[in-house]
Amino acid sequence: MQAFARQWVTSLGLVCAMTSGSTLISGEAHAQSSSTGAIEGQTDSSGQKPFQSKSNAKSRVRTIRPGPKPVTPTPAGPGTNDLSQSSTTDEGFLPASLHDWMKQSTMTGNWGGWRPWLTDKGVNITGHYFQDSAGNPMGGKSQNVRYAQEIGLNFDFDLKKLTGYSIGLFHFIVTSRAGQGLGAKLPALNSPQEIYGSPTVRLSLLSWEMHWNRYVATTAGEINSETDFETWSMYWGMNNYCQFQTNAICGMPQSIAYNSGYGYYPTAHPGAWVKFYPAGNDHYSIQFGVYSADPTIGNTHNGWKLNLHGATGTFLPFQLVWHQGGKDDYSGPLQTNIKVGGYWDTSQVNDVYSQGGMFEIPSNYLVSAPTAKVRGRFGGWFQFDRMIQRDAADSHRGTSFFASFTWGDPRTAIAPYFVDWGLTRKGTFKNRPDDTVSLGMKFLWVNAKISNWVAQLQKDGATGLYRPSGEHAIELNYGWRPTPWLLIRPGAQYIWSTGGTNRYKNPLILDFETGITF
Fold first, then answer.
1. How many helices (H) and strands (E) would you count in the chain?
2. In order along the chain (518 residues), what is the average pLDDT of each group of 10 residues?
3. Are the C-beta atoms of 353 and 371 separated by less than 8 Å?
4. What spatial distance separates the first Cα and last Cα of the chain, rounded to whole Å?
5. How far apart are alpha carbons 457 and 251 in whole angstroms?
6. Residue 43 carries which DSSP code?
7. Strand partners, 492
8. 13 CB neighbour count, 10 Å cutoff
9. What gap in Å lies between CA 64 and CA 386, rounded to an integer?
10. To 5 degrees, how large is the angle CA 415–CA 513–CA 40?
11. What's the sign of the alpha-carbon dihedral 98, 104, 109, 113?
């Protein structure tokens, strides 16, 4: 326990040093009043055309999986803390006061007026830093603390503003990750950290987005399916799935990445999608995609891979979406989204029996597993999310809910059934209208084929085996937003049957997340 405490102190010290270092480096920031801040993003209103080309953060939020970032500030009512953006130092590099700096939408402000000038010309530049720290003081195979971080730079180009021609948007994103994950130490089927990875700089997005008319939009380039299919919704300018640190929920329901060639952030795959709006607005949409299925793209040396070498097939998803909502989440009808989709992956892969090593089944038993090759795999999903209430006394406070069900090919899927849900309350205490409290759970059921195979081995006298059944988890956290550009989120997680079996005691995890928008 003492060793665990020392690890936590070291990890938290590193977090504080990184956070304070970023703040000091950006000490020449000044107040920003532009509406094109890096943390904007809201579902389009029912009466607005959702395909008007805009080089702003709304486009960017739809094309990358953002880390948890501060909500775009809104004017506060009497008796609440006022996080509205300062407009007193728009032409300077330094904020007029600490108060003004704390009210900017980004840590580095308007760069002496250069940031809004670039945006007016069609170039939008933003960046982010966030870290995930997690440790298990009890349960699991051993007690450990792990720290991981990500730094990202995002560039959006409005080609109409740059060229005078309506030829869409161009996006470029590069990310750098470092740090280790706690999941391998527990072990856990889904990482309790949103991010981790070997030190690497990689291309995360290089794409051309085009809205042809009121009815058709397309994107092509180096992209990933996580940003386009079975993905999140935006509430109050925030990614509703990434109000959680656990990777089981944040980004997308994780089983689809286990079960198919679904591409996940921050990797980028050759791909394209087309979306149709039958009614000429965002009430209904039908979307089809095509992506390279490449299990090697996540390797450190493939961070800038721009070819099809190593691809095993093609990932072909489709999705139907129904949307209702007002112009934002502060007025009008309460936002509601229903998404139904499925996929076909043309890859030839091993069946589920080949995945027994995930459950620490000894190798002398794995060699007897009835493995076989399977050509093509399939699956589907259902997602629902809704703002279930908005406070009558303060429209900036409310509660959102989401739930999803993901199904995978029973021949190949490790987790053919996966369910998650989450509840986020925005507006906690009297003077905290932008803070959040989030509660979420995930339920993962291991494929019955491998469970029954292990049960038969046990019946035949095999020893040292634990029958896989499933892994379920819960997370509770508090998102403190002292400024529009800073998020500090402590939380706790608890995992039942970690690693999918009852080999180890259920772990309690204490986590700590920080996000900064530059």
1. 8, 18
2. 56 50 34 29 35 35 33 39 48 81 91 94 96 97 96 97 97 96 96 89 97 98 96 95 96 93 95 98 97 94 92 97 93 96 97 94 93 97 98 96 98 97 96 96 98 96 94 98 96 98 98 96
3. yes
4. 37
5. 37
6. P
7. 476, 510
8. 10
9. 22
10. 90
11. negative
Q: Give the phi and the psi of residue 114 in degrees, each rounded to 5.
A: -70, -35
CB within 8 Å of 368: residues ≥ 6 apart: none
Q: Is 230 helix (H, G, I), strand (E, B) or coil?
A: coil
Q: 94: buried, middle or exposed (CB in 10 Å: 19+, 13-18, 0-12)?
A: middle
Distance CA 416, CA 408 (A): 4
DSSP classification of residue 334: P
Residue 261 phi, psi dihedral angles, 5° rounding: -90, 25
**Identity of the amino acid at 215:** Y
Q: Give the global pTM.
A: 0.85
Instruction: Spell 54-93 as b/e; 16+ CB within 10 A means b.
Output: bbbbbbbbbbbbbbbbbbbbbebeeebbebebbeebbeeb
Burial 443-479 (b: 16+ CB within 10 A, else e): bbbbbebbbebbeebeeeeeeebbbbbbbbbebebeb
Q: What is the distance between the alpha carbons of residues 84 and 145, in angstroms, rounded to a whole number? A: 37
Q: Which residue has the tokens 């395909």?
A: 51
Q: Is the dihedral of CA 174, 180, 183, 189 positive or negative?
A: positive
**d(Cα 179, Cα 196) in Å, to the nearest integer?**
5
Whose CA is closest to 307, among 296, 315, 316, 317? 296
Give me the phi and psi of 510, to 5 degrees please: -105, 130
Strand partners, 239: 234
DSSP structure string for 468-513: --EEEEEEEEEEEEEETTEEEEEEEEEEESGGGSSSSPPPEEEEEE
* Three state DSSP letters for 156-188: EEEHHHHHCCCCCEEEEEEEEEEECCCCCCCCC
Dihedral angle, C-alpha 255, 258, 264, 265, nearest 10 °: 80
- pLDDT, position 55: 34
What three-state secondary structure class fits 273? Answer: strand
Residue 86, pLDDT score: 52
Strands 436-445 vs 169-179: parallel, antiparallel or unpaired: unpaired
At which residue do the structure tokens 């579902």 appear? Answer: 43
3-state helix/strand/coil string of 426-477: ECCCCCCCCCEEEEEEEEEECCHHHHHHHHHHHHCCCCCCCCCCEEEEEEEE
* Strand partners for 32: none
Query: What secondary structure letter does DSSP report for 193?
Result: S
The number of CA neighbours under 13 Å toward the Cβ of 16 is 6
The DSSP 8-state label assigned to residue 366 in this structure reads H
Helix segments in 318-412, DSSP class H: 363-366
| Amino acid letter, 226 | E
